[in-house]
Automatic annotation (TrEMBL):
Keywords: Acetylation, Cytoplasm, Endoplasmic reticulum, Hydrolase, Immunity, Inflammatory response, Innate immunity, Metal-binding, Nucleus, Peroxisome, Phosphoprotein, Transferase, Zinc. It is found in: Cytoplasm; Endoplasmic reticulum; Nucleus; Peroxisome. One of its GO terms (molecular function) is copper ion binding. Interacts with FASN. Interacts with SDHA. Interacts with ATF6, EIF2AK3 and ERN1. This is Purine nucleoside phosphorylase LACC1. It comes from Ceyx cyanopectus (Indigo-banded kingfisher). Belongs to the purine nucleoside phosphorylase YfiH/LACC1 family. Pfam families: Cu-oxidase_4 (PF02578). GO terms for biological process: inflammatory response; innate immune response; regulation of defense response.
Length: 438
């Protein structure tokens, strides 16, 4: 069942502009008659001329809107300077109401353009079907909609123009939830390395569990790649790295490591490099983003260490990759554990807890319970020390000076961090990143 209807009047052909009121009246009448209860939400996209007040753009449409009492409160006119701005505003309305099945009524000539906008601004969470704006006004015809299908593609130059329009619009949006904040470790020398751990503030993601500097997208979430890319651009601009030479691990919750410049594995939770100006990163939203730096050999790395990766030794696997690829000495490697879920909050089933208990009984609290509390940070430190990393070269939540503690519990700080454990499946993601300065 269609949950929302978008009527695109943004760029009407000349033969339809003269009869806009009659055309819109017929469409709304058909929607009202043919829809089930409740009627769908209706959003009318209109072009707003530069400098004009928003209301002045709606005036020609008002007579056609007054007769539809069943759509009262479910009908909105969205005026904007660009299609990207109008469609993104409508996306926000859809997300507020958790709507995902949308019919788009638009001129035939706009269909291929609109599909490109939708492809970039929406994810697979949403289902779209299309209806020709010039359809007859009886309900039987209006119900015949064209599902999304791969048809003739727009010329690449047109796609590039749309991409640039979307990019410029997203760059113009204000930051949400406060200023962008990056945590840095005093252990990593800033004259050699550029590094940091991001927080959830200062981006443009508006969905509550993703707000606001979410750095991960998937087909199952409502944050599209273009929004994540804009959040990353803002991080890069604030931190001083090039987002075009940014490489993030491809999570498998295991212990494979990618050495930059060699064949890239399909999946890996660690990544290392000795190339200047290349930024490597690992995400975290309870799992630990771990950063590695060797100021002697000038090499660095990042790893994603969840409970499975911790048990599989992903952090030492990353250290070993630096040793074998760049001749690093384990005595020189510095390791910093970023924000992650603490033993105060994190629980695992008893069977999984046994594995951490074998590493060190102090890694488990309430061991005899059905779901003991687990300290994946302590387990990571112990495995690193067993592998030869000096205790003083590891920074985690055991630091004496708590003003230097950047290994905060993600679940305990909803104002600062995302947390899968706290927020459920639709959680946002922060990252730890590092690069060698030019």
């Amino acid at each position: 069942m269609v949950e929302a209807v978008v009527i695109d009047l943004f760029s009407l052909p000349a033969d339809l502009q003269n009869n806009i009121q009659g055309l819109l009246h017929d469409m709304l009448e058909t929607i009202e008659k043919s829809s089930s209860i409740p009627t769908p939400f209706v959003y009318i996209m209109c072009f707003q001329k530069q400098g004009n007040e928003r209301n002045s753009e709606q005036e020609p449409l008002l007579p056609a809107l007054r007769d539809f009492q069943s759509l009262k409160g479910r009908l909105e006119v969205v005026c904007a300077l660009t299609t990207a701005a109008a469609l993104y505003t409508i996306k926000q309305r859809l997300d507020e109401k958790d709507l995902s099945i949308i019919k788009v009524i638009l001129p035939t000539l706009r269909k291929d353009l609109m599909k490109v906008y939708i492809e970039h601004l929406f994810t697979e969470v949403y289902q779209f079907e299309f209806q020709d704006l010039q359809v007859a006004s009886d309900s039987e015809n209006l119900q015949i909609a064209e599902p999304w299908s791969e048809g003739q593609r727009l010329p690449m130059q047109d796609v590039a123009l749309i991409q640039n329009e979307i990019k410029m619009y997203l760059e113009s949006l204000p930051s949400l939830k406060g200023e962008l904040t990056i945590f840095r470790s005093s252990l990593i020398p800033d004259d050699i390395f550029l590094h940091g751990f991001t927080t959830r503030t200062g981006g443009i993601s508006y969905i509550p569990t993703l707000s606001s500097c979410n750095l991960f997208c998937s087909s199952k979430r409502r944050d599209p790649q273009v929004v994540v890319k804009e959040n990353l651009r803002r991080i890069a601009n604030a931190a001083g790295f090039n987002p075009e030479t940014f490489h993030r691990v491809k999570i498998d919750h295991a212990n494979a490591v990618c050495v930059m410049g060699k064949m890239e594995p399909d999946w890996y939770d660690g990544i290392v490099t000795n190339q200047k100006g290349v930024t490597v990163a690992a995400p975290g939203a309870d799992c630990i983003p771990v950063l590695f730096a060797d100021p002697v050999r000038k090499a660095c790395g990042a790893a994603h260490s969840g409970w499975k990766g911790t048990l599989l030794g992903v952090s030492m696997a990353t250290v070993n990759a630096m040793v074998s690829a760049y001749g690093c000495n384990v005595n020189d490697i510095l390791v910093v554990l970023g924000p992650s879920v603490g033993p105060c909050c994190y629980k695992l089933p008893h069977e999984s807890a046994k594995e951490f208990h074998r590493i060190d009984p102090k890694c488990v609290r309430l061991f005899d319970s059905e779901s003991p509390y687990i300290d994946i940070r302590r387990a990571t430190r112990i495995l690193l020390e067993k592998g030869g990393i000096r205790p003083e070269n590891i920074q985690d939540d055991s630091v004496t000076d708590q003003t230097q503690n950047i290994t905060l519990c993600t679940a305990c700080h909803p104002d600062k961090f995302y947390s899968h454990f706290r927020d459920g499946t639709n959680f946002g993601t922060q990252i730890g990143f590092i690069s060698i300065k030019d």
